[in-house]
Amino acid sequence: MSPDMTALLLKALGETVRMVVIAMLAASVIGIPLGVLLVTTARHQILECVPFNRILAGVVNAVRSIPFIILMVAIIPVTRLIVGTSIGTTAAMVPLTIAAIPFIGRQVETSLREVPEGIIEAALSMGASPLQIIWHVYLPEAMPGIISQLTTVIIGLVGASAMAGAIGGGGLGDLAIRYGYQRFRPEVMLATVIVLIILVQVVQFAGNTIARRLNKK
Amino acid sequence: MIELSQIEKVYDSPSGPVPALKGINLRIERGEIYGIIGLSGAGKSTLIRCINMLERPTKGKVIVDGKDMTAMNERELRQARKNIGMIFQHFNLLSSATVYDNIAFPLRLVHMDEKEVRAKVEPLLELVSLKEKAQQYPSQLSGGQKQRVGIARALASEPKVLLCDEATSALDPQTTKAILELIRDINQKLALTVVVITHEMQVIRDICDKVAVIENGVIAEEGSVLEVFTNPREPITKEFISVQMSNELPAAFRGGEISQEPVAGRPLLVRLTFIGESADDPVIAGLIKNSNAEISILFGNIDQIKNTPYGRMIIGITGQPADIEQALAYLQQRDLRIEVIGYVARHDRAAS
Ligand SMILES: Nc1ncnc2c1ncn2[C@@H]1O[C@H](COP(=O)(O)OP(=O)(O)O)[C@@H](O)[C@H]1O
Ligand SMILES: [Mg+2]
Questions:
Q1: Cα dihedral value A204, A205, A209, A210, nearest 10
Q2: What domains can be seen in chain B, in order of their start residue?
Q3: How far apart are CA A50 and CA A62, in angstroms?
Q4: ipTM given for this complex
Q5: Which residues of B touch A (CB under 8 A)?
Q6: pTM over 0.90
Q7: B49 in ligand 1 pocket by Cβ < 6 Å?
Q8: Which pLDDT tens digit goes with each residue over A44-89?
């Protein structure tokens, strides 16, 4: 493979990583509290507020049911409003973030639900406030699960970011389509696929390792 | 210390309202170990959870240490709960925290600084004999050790009341004994008021001063443990006592039918309890000498409770009704406690 090809590949990898990392961080800031609210505002939970819980769950389901490729196009005006452009890596981060928020919300919700009710009850019996229970009980107890689930989200984002190539988002997907497919360079296609596989493996391995370290059960 | 008046609790369930408590009145004095016994579903957990308002009663008043819990808002309740420790059947420890951090949990909730936390946690680790386990996680502990952590954690905020919801039900008999002893010890050392929920009469007998029997959401019977044991009035109480006694019977009699009236061929089983000096008294030798009935020893055991020898024995008395009467009369004159279990069928000889 030519040196300019290697450079292209590295640049594309850098773009993918940047898109995924920033979208992941931005989405977590909203998605993790969203997951917490999905659990704690449900019936018989520490911040019980059933109507709010229903609305939240409805919105989450609605966003999750939109295929990413459609979401990306549908929110172009919003993207333009937020980042000033609808093309490029930065623009691709907006739909990636929006798609990841409900995904993270649901995954965090699933992990938090596995915290035994008895532990919450014990904390209540010691006079813990709802915020203290979230911070000192729910999150640390569910952390190994949350890490595993977030790993899945990151891998999903790597896949979605490849689609972002469709709106000129850059990254590995974009490279594979432009060079590998449109210019018929199968070796570029192959190299991209290999880099994607390695990337996913590294993410999965890191996620598993951290989750295992945190798990004291 | 704890006063429940006219407590009612109705749960809403998809299949309609479920009345779990139907007008409970209880008074628990300071420093007492108060047992509440009932079958599964009787309302025990609901009742104990009403004491610290984990469950708000539908009606009635709960007063703990002079304060009306039912009139408090959430903030006041959180404050009041720091005065009421609780331990659970399944321990409910944080799996992600060490033994030390579990015990420190209630202290960190009130933002105590780490030096003070250490000064409180270390004596507690000592109290529950887990000093060398401080840095281990709950998953590395046995059930009994987990419950010790639960106890230490419940005591960390220096509560005046300890609530125990089936705290020994997940433990084997030896561990149960050790945990109950620990609870009794703490009760005396710290002048703590303890409420014990259980479905086992053994637990009541081992540590409680008073007992209430709960059935279908109402208190069926209540009184000092001795009183209720020696003179049970309600069928449910009798049932609990006979199950408990039957657990101590020799295998050949266990589960056998018990009759209070003489039945030909069945021995009258009597439990003798010797406390202190009377443990040295040659009662059995005297009984054999002074009675025409046949005496057999079916179970014997000597324990120490706080340096006092404490012996228990089950004997079988066989013979003419008059001889049996005479043997009982002899025992009644001695310095010991006797409990007549009844005429019990033994099932290993049923065929012969
Ligand atoms: N959250 C709940 N919702 C509906 N019914 C409940 C709930 N908790 C307990 N019950 C019912 O209340 C009754 C008493 O339960 P509980 O206090 O747990 O009994 P115990 O601890 O003596 O086994 C039972 O019939 C039980 O099914
Ligand atoms: Mg119960």
A1: -40
A2: 2-244 (3.40.50.300), 258-344 (3.30.70.260)
A3: 18
A4: 0.86
A5: 52, 54, 77-82, 84-86, 88, 90, 92-97, 105-106, 108-109, 137-139, 153-154, 157, 163
A6: no
A7: no
A8: 999 999 999 999 999 999 999 999 889 888 888 988 888 888 888 8
